């Protein structure tokens, strides 16, 4: 009888320890939406975004959403405002990255105006710059703008002052793990040379000087691909508009900051 009671006691203790460890496990989970192309196909892109938002709003364990560039189909103020108003239907915080389609100085949507509109629409949740930093738990997220504002071309380019700013941030947060959020891939290959960022190699060399970078999350190439290059996990995600999909990204803070991803294809749900 005593042995049976002791076994039951051990079983209860084991379950309690298991539950305690599970409860204390720390991770960051966020959604990446790439190339939403808001404004394309009359109301088609809006409908796809609205469906994605409805799906994401049902998820209880998501910390935030990032729109990783080409959020609108052409750089117009009224389109950007409409996109942000729609994105506000999310019941989670969200962050916005610039892509090649988002800026267009000839249509009076230059970089400063873009940042001002986002800040005005989102208030305290958005900084007054297209390059900015935010932190979740133990991970620092750096949003980097590689879009051109003067000439609207498919390729990006990271200005020297942008790379200098990035290096400053990487030094500032040298004791933290860093994930970079941007539109343009720098490690992936593409058969379409017009999409490739000319100074990607320079950018990769910059990152290689800092061992706190664990990931770079991008869109632009409209491909679902992930590669591990020089100790950094490079993630690129297909277009929400074209492929009707988005990605769930999880960072396990308790086990070496491992990164796990899952592509959600809305048509297959």
Describe this structure in words.
By secondary structure, this protein is α/β, with parallel strands linked by helices. Helices cover 32% and strands 23% of the residues. It has one domain: 4-Layer Sandwich (Purple Acid Phosphatase, chain A, domain 2), CATH 3.60.21.10. It contains seven helices and eleven strands. The protein has a six-stranded mixed β-sheet, with helices on one face. Strands 3-2-1-10-11 form a five-stranded mixed β-sheet. α6 links the parallel β6 and β7. α3 packs parallel to α4. It is globular. It starts with a helix and ends with a strand. About 7% of the residues have low confidence.
Note the main attributes of this structure.
269 residues; alpha/beta; five-stranded mixed sheet; 32% helix; 23% strand
Helix-strand blueprint:
Blueprint: H1 2-24, E1 27-33, H2 44-57, E2 64-68, H3 77-87, E3 94-97, H4 111-122, E4 132-136, E5 139-143, H5 160-172, E6 177-181, H6 200-208, E7 213-218, E8 225-229, E9 232-236, H7 240-243, E10 245-252, E11 258-265
Helix pairs in contact: 3-4
Summary?
This protein is an alpha/beta fold and 269 residues long. 32% of the residues lie in helices and 23% in strands.
